[in-house]
Design brief:
globular, single chain
């Protein structure tokens, strides 16, 4: 066996089928197996993976404990017992978007014998739509990284790595009880070789309210990172102390800044107020208890909707599919505006939904389908064909909702003013500008002039600046 896909899952009833489907869709020149570690879920996850195993008995093996393990030990045991040369991992709430993902990673590792693991980029999607989908790994990511690099931050999404098993030593017992499963394992493995990077988006990292990391607020994340660094430093006998100590010091400084910001805002702002906080796209908003907190610039997806086609059934070409866009084609029944079916189309590598179906369009019942989907990536606009039917001969109307998936900061002060005014119109009452972003804020000269002339400055110190947006000076 060339590759083992190690899929870990717990209470992923809504997601696990999609994760398994994207593993089963892999197109490879080698054999691969899937081992599912189902950690005694309280929902229907176990029933779903058992059903998949019965459908694919030669491809899927299950590990089904009779109680929750609360430990990384099962993962370590299965990893070390796997007979494959390479091991890819996937969490049950994430998924892959390319059928060539495994093949690309094996090819990379075959060409880079110095690498103990390789990973690729992924799209980070927010299930509550509070933010735009974002690249997980920054554009400046190096093709080859070292253990010193992975200490700095976890730039590897959990749905992306593949490991060269023969290079990895025995997994120590300290790993069983450590808080996180992925980052410490990457650091451990990077002691034995380098880290390779494929600059392609081949998967989706899903952020939702039940995620172990994503459900933490900004303060809890910083506290967790400090504890993680200190624990890992001890686990590895302080061999990386010169790297870790400055990182711990920096996180303590960040934590003090967030705590001061929260304390100041809680003291000054009235309970229940809607606070607009100036923030960069990757930053968590400060946890202001008793307040509603919105980000500025607004990170939620921008969407427009247009008429596409009409008719009880038909076929029409959409020859304008762009990268960094998601196109949702919705089939409505006539003027009633009853949604009968929908399909989302993207360019290859940025797919945010299930992989495309290879079945023929149905001849009875309402449906709408797109082929190809995703459309091939390239420098030109992509093309797909939409087929649809209302199923009963009634009039159908197709509207296409277009979401811009690329975060873009306001291009100038006028655009910034327009966006701030939209947030005010929705109910924003105060603008909070952290001190570290004052220069960025004042770079939008027209925005600052607009606020100074219309809003009252109620606080300004070395922690933050706060404006009252509710009335004039």
């Amino acid at each position: 066996m060339e590759v083992t896909v190690l899929l870990t899952t717990y209470n992923h009833e809504e997601y696990i089928a999609q994760a398994l489907d994207t593993v089963l869709m892999q197109e490879t020149e080698f054999d691969y197996e899937i081992i599912v570690l189902e950690d005694c879920s309280t929902d229907a996850t176990r029933e779903i993976v058992i059903a998949y195993q019965k459908r694919y008995p030669d491809k899927i093996r299950l590990r089904l404990p009779d109680r929750n393990q609360y430990s990384n030990k099962p993962f370590a045991e299965v990893f070390q017992s796997a007979r494959s040369r390479y091991i890819a991992i996937l969490d049950g709430d994430d998924y892959w978007t390319s059928p060539k993902k495994l093949q690309k990673q094996v090819d990379f590792l075959e060409a880079h014998s110095e690498c103990v693991l390789c990973f690729h980029n992924a799209i980070r999607i927010y299930e509550d739509l509070s933010r735009l989908p974002l690249r997980y790994t920054f554009q400046a990511q190096k093709t080859i990284s070292t253990v010193e690099d992975i200490w700095q931050s976890c730039f590897i999404a959990g749905c992306t790595p593949m490991f060269r098993k023969a290079m990895i030593g025995h997994i120590p017992e300290w790993y069983y009880a450590i808080s996180y499963g992925d980052w410490p394992f990457y650091i451990f493995c990077a002691q034995y070789g380098k880290i390779g990077y494929i600059d392609e988006i081949l998967g989706v990292y899903r952020i939702h309210g039940q995620g172990v990391w994503s459900k933490l607020d900004a303060i809890q994340k910083l506290e967790g990172q400090i504890a993680f660094y200190e624990t890992m430093n001890a686990n590895l006998d302080f061999r990386f102390n010169d790297i870790v100590e400055p990182l711990v010091s920096a996180r303590h400084k960040d934590l003090a800044a967030v705590n001061s910001l929260v304390e100041t805002a809680q003291r000054i702002l009235p309970v229940g107020a809607v606070i607009i906080v100036l923030s960069k796209v990757y930053e968590d908003l400060p946890p202001l208890k008793g307040h509603e907190v919105w980000a500025f610039p607004d990170p939620s997806p921008k969407q427009t909707q247009h008429h596409f086609a009409s008719g009880a059934a038909g076929s029409a070409e959409a020859a304008w599919i762009q990268a960094n866009r998601a196109y949702e084609f919705r089939l409505y029944r006539g003027t009633v505006q009853e949604v009968l079916a929908s399909v989302t189309v993207t360019q290859n590598g940025t797919g945010l939904d299930s992989p495309p179906s290879d079945r023929e369009p149905r001849h009875s019942g309402a449906f709408i389908e797109a082929w190809p989907n995703p459309v091939p990536a390239g420098t030109k606009l992509g093309k797909t064909t939409i087929n649809w039917s209302t199923g009963d001969g009634s009039k159908g109307v197709i509207e296409v909702a277009i979401k811009n998936l690329q975060m873009r900061y306001p291009g100038d002060g006028d655009e910034a003013i327009e966006q701030l005014e939209r947030l005010k119109a929705k109910g924003g009452e105060f603008l909070l500008v952290p001190r570290k972003l004052i220069d960025w804020f004042e770079g939008y000269v027209r925005l600052k002039e607009h606020i100074d002339s219309r809003c009252r400055l109620i606080h300004d110190d070395d922690i933050c600046r706060i404006y009252d947006l509710r009335g004039g000076n």
